[in-house]
Amino acid sequence: MSLARNTLVQTGFTLMSRVLGYARDRAISNIIGANPIGDAFATAQMFPNLFRRIFAEGAFSQAFVPVYARTQSERGGDVAASVASQSLSVLLLATVVITIAAQIAMPWIMLVIHGGYADQPRYFNYAILLTQITMPYLAGMSASALFSGVLNTAGRFALSAAAPIFLNLCILAAVLPAPNSNTAALWGAIAIAVAGVVQAALLWWGCRRLGVRIGLRAPKLTPDVKRILVLMGPAVFAGSATQINVFVSQALASFEEGAKSWLYAADRLYQLPLGLIGVAIGVALLPRLSRAVASADQHDEGQALNEAVALSMAFTLPAAAAFLVAPYVLMHGFWTGGQFTDADARATAAALFHYGWGVPAFVLTRILAPPFFARQDTRRPMAYAFASVFANVALGVSFFFGLRAMGAPGYVGLAIATSAAAWVNVILLAGTLLREKTWAPDAGVWLRLARIGLATAVMAVAVWATTPFYPGINAYFSALPVIGVAGKEVATLLICLAGFLLFVAAAFGIRAVTIEEILRAFRRERAAPGEGGALPPGVDA
To answer: Does residue 535 belong to any structural domain of this protein?
Structure first.
């Protein structure tokens, strides 16, 4: 498949997951609210999710896929399946040990990540309990990362993209019938742990249907497993700088009641383009770059990277612009209700605005790191991630306490620091690729990006001009008998849809993209000899 087709498959199922994820988060915020219980549940989700984004969408995949793909190409499918089985056994052992150790040490860990509630034992201890319950999710998602890597190497992206849907379904099934916020948080935490097992089982089944037999063996550090671990060590840090920055922000936010819930709500919105575009393109890009590097095809490598940057920015810049010009409209329309008030929406909008200008950097980090990983170079991305995290911690602490000293909310400074740190990472990654001519974008790429930026500016001005009319549009639809209960959601969707259509019209009008280019991008590529294999019906989309 072409990069665009692979990305479309990944994005389509991810979009379905994100829609259900929105329903999940909306249910959580409306039933639990932005309060100490909500902050405790946000912590319980955040801690294992930090590992999910590192392992399932980051370090393990970036280390495993190149080794697995090379083994499959040079030594055959049976040997590659053996390497996957050996890796799974070692990975599960490691994650189970980490999970148990974290559960035992959770009271001390919570002093770091939720220290602001240390003087409120009821809420502090509840956060400990919820996070202990959710920790097994790590083992399930680590296994899922391996199974996804096997499927993605074979060009099968649908099942790995669809698996997160089950997390959302499990949490919704647990939270919706809960009689109160305490019970909703407890049942939701249990659902997260169960979902990890369900997702891993589904992806294991997909590998079996593909014909790849992966099973558990006595854990053993074979040369192949050692190679994966060596690559994975630096990549754990390099591939997760954004998540570590979020982790630092959440730890500081515990010193402002409700701030964790506000940052979590803003995180769910700005993570949408990252999940739909950045992760999707990154997942589709790594196998292609690995094959190009293995065959010394520099032309295909450069073409893939150019295509990925242009494609990602075509989707990301409009989303970032919407976060900048209409953050309150988005938060009020999509989040307000139940325990989540208008004041909460305004507080969250302040964070979303500053996440907005960081969104392109969050996505570009996912695009610019794979060229290093395809060459099994994890050292330099790790060093750049260290610089990014250092910047985030320094700026986050300075802005958080500086704003609080001036009587302003400190959590806004955390959003500023997170976005600034992401741009530090992008500048270092891009600078290295450009300097070493691993990436040499031609004039056509720069022209494409300029046109995309212009189309985005047209959309942003129009959406900004529309926001003063939001209360009236909201009131109109809320008064209609059929859709009144969802009036503000409909009003917000219409503003977003109008902005998107205007962007598309402007993009075609100034030839930022053409019909011919879209058709060419999504044309199926001829598979390389021995690549992939037929997938039985029902597994691929």
So the answer is: no
DSSP label at 486? G
Choose one of 409, 441, 473: the last residue of a domain.
441
Q: Distance between CA atoms of 189 and 194, rounded to whole angstroms?
A: 9
218 backbone dihedrals φ, ψ, rounded to 5°: -60, 125
Question: Which tokens belong to 225?
Answer: 């497993």
> Could you tell me if 62 and 378 are in contact, meaning their C-beta atoms sit under 8 angstroms apart?
yes
3-state secondary structure 253-288: HCCCCCHHHHHHHHHHHHHHHHHHHHHHHHHHHHHH
**Distance, CA of 319 to CA of 315 (rounded, Å):** 7
- For the entire predicted model, the pTM comes to 0.70
Residue 383's identity, in one-letter code, is: A
* Same-domain pairing of 415 and 491: no
Is there a single domain that holds both residue 136 and residue 191?
Answer: yes
What pLDDT is recorded for position 2? Answer: 52
Beta-carbon count within 10 A of 444 CB: 10
Q: Looking at the structure, do residues 248 and 346 belong to the same domain, yes or no? A: yes
Q: Is the pLDDT score of 77 beyond 70?
A: yes
pLDDT tens by residue, 460-473: 999 999 999 998 98
Query: Sorting pLDDT into bands at 50, 70 and 90, what band is 242?
Result: low
- d(C-alpha 481, C-alpha 259), whole Å: 36
Total structural domains in the chain? 2
Q: How would you label 308-334 residue by residue, b for 16+ Cβ within 10 Å and e otherwise?
A: bbbbbbbbbbbbbbbbbbbbbbbbbbb
Pair 435, 449 in one domain: no
Q: Buried b vs exposed e over 164-183: b needs ≥16 C-beta within 10 Å?
A: bbbbbbbbbebbeebeebee
With CA atoms as reference, report the closest residue to 192 among 219, 166, 230, 220: 166
Residue 541: inside a domain: no
User: Any bridge partners for residue 537, and if so which?
Assistant: none
Burial of 443 (0-12, 13-18, 19+ CB in 10 A): exposed
Indicate whether 124 and 193 sit together in one domain. Answer: yes
Q: Which residue has the higher pLDDT, 175 or 158?
A: 175
Kindly state the tokens that stand for 413.
């400074």
Domain presence at residue 62: yes
Is residue 381 assigned to a domain? yes
Instruction: Give φ, ψ of 527 to 5 degrees.
Output: -70, 145
Mean pLDDT value of segment 38-64: 74
Q: Of 410, 441, 472, which marks where a domain is finished?
A: 441
Which residues constitute the domain of residue 41? Answer: 3-441
Pick the more confident residue, 532 or 17.
17
Q: Assess whether 224 and 317 both reside in one domain.
A: yes
- 295 and 357 belong to one structural domain: yes
Query: Are 301 and 292 contacting, i.e. CB atoms less than 8 angstroms apart?
Result: yes
Helices marked H in 326-341 — which ranges?
Answer: 327-335
Hey, what are 103's tokens? 């559960």
C-alpha–C-alpha distance, residues 446 and 326, integer Å: 28
Q: Are residues 436 and 468 in the same domain?
A: no
Beta bridge partners of 244: none
Residue 212 CB neighbours (<10 A): 22
